[in-house]
Automatic annotation (TrEMBL):
Domain of life assignment: Bacteria
Matching InterPro entries: Homeodomain-like_sf (IPR009057), TetR_C_36 (IPR041485)
Identification of the protein by name: AcrR family transcriptional regulator
Pfam families associated with the record: TetR_C_36
QsdR TetR regulatory C-terminal domain boundaries: 82-192
Gene3D superfamilies the record matches: Tetracycline Repressor, domain 2 (1.10.357.10)
Amino acid sequence: MTRAAASGTRKRADREAALRLARKTFNAQQRVEVNDLAAALGVNRVTIYRWLGDRDAVLAEVIWRLGEQTVHQAYAAVGGIGGRRIANTMSTFVRHTLAHAGMRHFLTNETETALRVLTRGEQTFQPRLVALVEDLLTREHEAGALTTGDLGLHDLAYLCVRVGESFVYTDAITGETPDPDRAERALHYLLR
């Protein structure tokens, strides 16, 4: 029994505790495993599955929370209005994603899992990222700072996400080195 458990100060195991532990593990460049989370929290793996789903779902949620926070912070901090602001936001997101040690470790050491978790529709990461970017585009559109012509906001959001992804995952897709400067140029071109 740990000293914390013996003294009665052990934190209650719940969904949020599992996610905090998974995020800490991910950020430490360690492999996130359902069995390890369950053991560390003193619950069985079925409980983790009930709270969070399978390993892919846990990873998608951890990465989503990191990504959502990064996008919101970038949008609040970057300059520009309209398409320029969105391009700056997404460029900052790409830079932070590439600089995040846990993400680089995940992309390098679990490439197939990473691509599945981050780009497949049945996982929750990409649809939520597209929805978040669509919300930001909508804000700029409603403020009169962005026009999209015949392209709807959802489609433009999807394109922004896919352009960003193509430069984050380029090493896994084409073998080229990820380059945030190329992503920035492409995003500004798309949103000009």
